[in-house]
Structures are given as structure tokens and as C-alpha cells.
Amino acid sequence: MANILIIDDEAAILNLMAKSCRQQGHDVTAVQTGKEGLQALDAQQPELMIVDLLIGDMNGLDIIRYSEEHYPSTEVIMVTGNGSVETAVKAMRLGAFDYLTKPFELADLQRTVELGLQHRDQPATALEEGFRSASITPPSSGMIGESAKVKEIQSIIDRIADNDSPVLLEGEFGSGKQMVARSIHNASTRKDAPFKVLQCSALPEELLETELFGSPTSRGETIFSRAAGGTVLLEEIHVLPVRLQSKLDSYLEEITTRRMMGDLPRAMDVRFIASSAKPLQEGIENGSFREDLYYKISIIPIEVPPLRSRVEDIDPLAAHFLKQYSDRTGAPVPEIDKYAKRLLESYSWPGNVGELQNAIERACAFSKENRIRPVDLPPKVTQKVEITDEDEKTTHHLPIGTGLSDYIRKQEKLFIRETLKYNEGSREKAASMLGVSIATLYRKMGLKLEKDKMLAK
Fold first, then answer.
1. Which tens digits make up the pLDDT trace of 189-213?
2. Strands (DSSP E) along 171-223, which ranges?
3. Using alpha carbons only, what angle is made at residue 40 by residues 35 and 42, rounded to the nearest 5 degrees?
4. Cα–Cα distances in angstroms (integers) from residue 442 to residues 390, 396, 417, 426, 431, in the given order
5. Mean predicted lDDT score pLDDT of the chain
6. 90 has a pLDDT exceeding 50
7. What sign does the dihedral 133-183-111-34 (CA atoms) show?
8. Which of these CATH numbers, 1.10.3210, 2.60.40, 3.30.70, 1.10.10, describes 384-455?
9. Res 399 pLDDT > 90
10. What value does the mean pLDDT take over residues 2-10?
11. d(CA 147, CA 308)
């Protein structure tokens, strides 16, 4: 649930947008004038604002500019009846997350609202305050986590922060790639310069091209020139059209050459980072991604692991999100009881860090007596499927959302155990019957102690 402000002078459209957002469970304030909108913005500081371009008493771009200057954490969606690329470019340069052109489907509005709120809530913007809330000493990179994988990434960041070589971040949606990119920027000597993000999937091809390479009407201004001296993050590069991949390859080649020659213009002096939710090698194989561009942007590759592979990070991340919620609402920081904590640690988090944040916020909203219990968590976190082990008379519980590989591993162990039982404990016969080596048999069964106990039966 979020606090949303909508400003539009057309009453019918205003009411439709307000009703649509309320159906999503959000608190909505709807006003018809720019003056009322600014007053509501000052009073509420909403998580998200939807503003029409042409309001009777004010230009929507002026409201966006004011919001960005005074409330940069408020995500903005611009609505316009004039679908020109130039207008959209102006709005997004002023800080808007996205834009919708009238007439639009309410489903498109709801989807854009959810994307905007997810973008706002990404833990990528969590800095030292979040570490204090989790009682963790913040490393120089500003990342949250205690797992070996996060510490490894932190070590890489410390080593390459001031290296201008391009970085490629690969990992699942919501795994924290933008957090890593911001951490690289914050750990470098470029930290006082702009950090600009461009999401390839959020813009139509024409607007994306204008943002990357400029146009006659944009007077040559691009995301690179606006990030001069700082860092550019190109998100979801795997969906970048092949035609624009070719232009980006040439542009990055020019940056590298001119930097080596010592005549790099200020407008091209940036650290380039790209991220992808899908392995780019797969794109090379199916022809959707250029191999030459891949090698150019992956000089420093970093794999960002999913949350399910770093369970140690769930607790500090949850503590950070609890503190975020408390700061926003003015309520005391809730406590998570041990049973709810076990559920959080056993769930597979297919939506990664973003899903954890949403779960924590929901739990805070439903909790009583400043304590989060299992009943306060989303049903998919608490619901489980059962796998019965008849041999040991036990039942394994796997949370809904568990990855297929985890389910298969459980079934494999049960099948191997039955095969060993059939072969009266002979590992050689069992391995032969299963068509695997003895070493593979041991590895699939897990710990040596467990295997020895099993074979002794």
C-alpha cells in the first residue's frame, strides 16, 4: 500500500485514475489544480505522483521539477494527451519515472504504478542509514549483507571502483544489481558527480535512441552528457534493440579511444555499467545480442546472486526495511518473532530482494503490538507443499515458490535412498542401477555423516 497523489484537471479521468489506484489498495489524494497539487505534495510527500502535462493553472513539467528538487524520493508518472517524444524526454530528464499517453488502458496505468513503486522501493538506494538500522557496520561499498557472496562483491567493488573499465552486472530481476552499481559509484572518486539510470525496457525504441544518442530537437543532450563526470547505468540491456546495440558499440569504442588519446570531452567522461536479468551469452547464441558489444561491456563481469542463495542476508535486509517503514510512518520499529523469521529464511524468494521488501511492508501493516508473526506474512511465504519420506517417517515442507531444482533435489534423495534399500545398502549396486558414479551418489546425498548412517542401515 502506498500514498499516491494524482493531479489532473479533467474530472472524469481523474476519478477513473483514482478509482483504479484504490482498487490496487493504495491511499489516493486526487486534485484538479496545480496549486492544490503542490499543497498536497508538501503536506503528504507521497511515494508516487501522477500528474497531467497540461493543467488549467500550471504546467505539469513545473510540478515535476518542483517535486524532483524538494522530494526526490517521490516517483512521478506524467500523463499527457500530447505523445511527442520531446515532451516525454523533458519529463524524464526532470525526474519522471515514466509517462502515459491519453487515452490509455487502466491496466497500463496499474502496471506503470506498480513498476514505479518497485523502482522507488528498490534497496539499491539504501545507504548507511540502513546499516545502522540492521546494526551492521557499512562497508565502503554501501551494500547490505553478511553472506560470503556479498562480501566477495564488496571486495571486487573496492578493487575496481576507480577503474573506468565497463562493468556488466548479471543476475535475476530484483537481485540487487542497481544496488551494486550505486555502490561502485559511491566507492569511486566519481561519487560527487551524477549517477544516471536508463531502463531499456521502460522506453519505446525512438525515445531510447534519443536518450542514448540525442536528436536534432534534443540539441545533443543525452544521458551520457547529463552524467558527465559520473556513472551511467543501462538497465536490462538484454532488451536493447540490435540496431541500437550497434550504435552503442560504436559510441563506447569512441569513448575508449578518446580517453586513451587524452582528448575525451567532458560530455563523454562517464563510467559505463550495464545490467541484465538474462545471461547475455544466451542472447549471443540466439542472435538477439551482438557478440562484439558483449565483450566491450563485460570487461569486469559481476554475477549478482539471488536472495535464496544467500540466506544470511535476509535478516539484515529485513531489519533495514523495518527501519525504512518506521521512518516513513513514524511508528516504532517492529520486532519479527522467531517463527516468522524462520519462514522468511526458508522461503525461496523468487522475486528476490524486492519481494522481501514488499513482504516486510505488508507484515508491518498487518502486525499488532509492534510484533510481526507468521500470520502477518504473505500467504505464499507461509504456504507449503509436503514431500513424505516413508523410510524415515518424516515429512519435508517446501514453501510455495520453491525453485524446481530444490524440489528435484529432495525427490532425488528419496529415490536414491529407496534404491540403496532395494540393493541392501550396497552403494556400488545402487550407483550402477542409477547410472551414476559412487562419487556422484555421495554428492547427491549430501553430508558424509548422513551417507554413512544411511549405508549402515
1. 999 999 998 888 877 888 889 889 9
2. 195-199
3. 100
4. 21, 20, 11, 13, 10
5. 82
6. yes
7. positive
8. 1.10.10
9. no
10. 92
11. 11
C-alpha to C-alpha distances, 235 to 101, 148, 167, 238, nearest whole angstrom: 23, 25, 12, 8
Topology of domain 3-121, CATH: Rossmann fold (3.40.50)
Question: What tens digit of pLDDT does each residue of 30-80 get?
Answer: 999 999 999 999 999 999 999 998 887 788 888 998 888 888 889 999 887
The conformation of residue 47, written as its DSSP 8-state character, comes to: S
Q: What is the pLDDT of residue 452?
A: 45
**What sections of 347-447 are H helices per DSSP?**
352-366, 379-382, 404-422, 427-434, 438-445
| Residue given cell 550505486 in the structure block | 182
For 76, the grid coordinates are 512521478
Please state whether beta strands 394-399 and 384-389 pair in parallel, antiparallel, or not at all (unpaired): antiparallel
- Intrachain domains 3-121 and 161-305 with the same fold: yes
Residue 264: all three cell numbers together? 575525451
Tell me if the bond preceding 72 is cis, omega within 30° of 0. Answer: no
Question: What CA–CA distance (Å, rounded) separates 309 from 175?
Answer: 11
DSSP 114-153: HHHHHHHH-GGG--HHHHHHTT-PPPTT-----SHHHHHH
pLDDT confidence tier of residue 411, bands split at 50, 70 and 90 = confident
